[in-house]
Design a protein that fits this description.
The protein has 67 residues and is mainly beta. Helices cover 12% and strands 37% of the residues. It has 1 helix and 7 strands, in the order βββαββββ. The N and C termini lie far apart (42 Å).
Length: 67
């Protein structure tokens, strides 16, 4: 079991997963979000390469329209 901090809230996962896999679990389209992993903004090409590990901090940002 690993613990991640996602948008400031602790989340538990059974095992480490890639950023891309985590986004699929959440049902999010990676084309419309930005990700910071441990304070570093990731390029979309990195989503399949970066593996989330115990204690990692992730910020997921989606644009919101309106007015």
């Amino acid at each position: 079991m690993i613990t991640l901090v996602i948008n400031g809230k602790p989340r538990e996962m059974e095992r480490p997963v890639t950023v891309a896999h985590y986004l699929r679990l959440l049902g999010l389209d990676s084309r419309h979000i930005a990700i910071a992993h441990n304070g570093a903004v990731l390029e979309r090409e990195q989503f399949d390469q970066v593996r989330l590990a115990n204690g990692d901090r992730v910020e997921i940002v989606r644009p919101v329209g309106g007015g």
